[in-house]
Amino acid sequence: MTVPDDLVAIDVHTHPQTEEFLAAMGPRRAQMAQHFGQQRPVVSFAEQADQYRSRRMMAVIVNSDSETTSGIRGAPNDLLGKAQADHPDVFLAFAGIDPWKGAAAVAEIRRCHGEYGIAGVGELNPSRQRFLPNDRRFFPLWETCAELGLVVMFHGGFPGAGAGTPGGGGHRLENARPIPYVDDVAAEFPELRIISAHPAWPWHLDNIAMVWHKSNVYLDLSGWGPKYLPPEVVRYADSVISDRVLFGTDWPVLTADRWLAEFDQLGWKETSRRKILRDNAVRLFGLAGSGSGED
Ligand SMILES: [Zn+2]
């Protein structure tokens, strides 16, 4: 598809909040509400689509399946595929997969690609799903995504999941380090396009280095109110890595309105601002129209 000229922004990181997705959070729903200090009301896909459409924005909708490690099955990927089909002007669907499911996870990626034309896979969370992306047992997943032209999103840095509980829910922070775990995948699969989600604090400098070094890796600024972004992230995003930084909210944790209001307080170069909000995602997802001047 081709995006309209008046498209304002693409939010590359939103978590659907329909009944099914909230149920699939299990006990994490209450823990995350505590951590972020906000409850999670049900929002239908139609309502979410309206929120973005009325602002002339698009949104990536992500999913997760951690059945092997949590015992709770993720919401069906069909829900996202159908939401994308119902609202093709707004949504780009990512399929949630459980990397431990091996061949079944590969088959699920192929099925979602074939049936729905999904845009990517993720958000994968190496801490919560307890895996290391550079473990060769998971390479068939990344190989498949590269073959099908799907973007893969890895959560980077501090996870809300388990935060503030004894033992952090058993989730290890180490797994969410961009270097070496995501950097290795990017090196092994140069044709694979990766979103390293969030600034990845406390490893935001590693994240910047990885994105600067490897042109197949993008970072999204989601999950942080822009006014709290570490200064180095803003400095590099506004200069050497401005071609590979993406607007993302982590909705519903942050709304696009709040995010943009804070983002605009940071004094971006106009060229960087447009790239981050819109043009980098247009290029990453191949949404440029012919003759629009974008590559
Ligand atoms: Zn995340």
UniProtKB/TrEMBL annotation:
Keywords: Lyase. GO terms for molecular function: carboxy-lyase activity; hydrolase activity. Residues 10-287 form the Amidohydrolase-related domain. It holds the Pfam family Amidohydro_2. InterPro entries: ACMSD (IPR032465), Amidohydro-rel (IPR006680), Metal_Hydrolase (IPR032466). SUPFAM superfamilies: Metallo-dependent hydrolases. This is Amidohydrolase-related domain-containing protein. It comes from Jiangella alkaliphila.
